[in-house]
Structure prediction request, 130 residues.
Amino acid sequence: MPAIAARAARKEDPFEVWGSGKQGRDFVHIDDCIDAILMALDNIHDGTAINIGSGRLTSFLEIIELMSSFAGYKPEIKPLLDKPVGVHSRYANMDFVSEKYNWQPKISVEEGMRRVYEAAVKKVAEEVKS
Prediction:
């Protein structure tokens, strides 16, 4: 994500994406990961495994759209169909952790991506100064 955010901060156009960009993942902010780990430390004592995530599939095209909207532009998307993309989709089933431990992420995908983008803007600005 930091690399995609930096490319948006630089307003790259066209915006290259590996594969079609339709492949999706379940993104969860690191603060929510830490929250889930602390919840597990307090509540799980038998080695039970849990899935954590947003429970929502988000495509890389959606991520590029979010990041470029934060940057205030709409780039042409250039699919790189010869690049590896991994599995088409992967996301967490949140039923168990939600029902048994009442755990849900607190930071939305949009807010998490905004935080990544804002950090990238600062980093890109520092690179320009150097």
Notes: The mean pLDDT is 95.
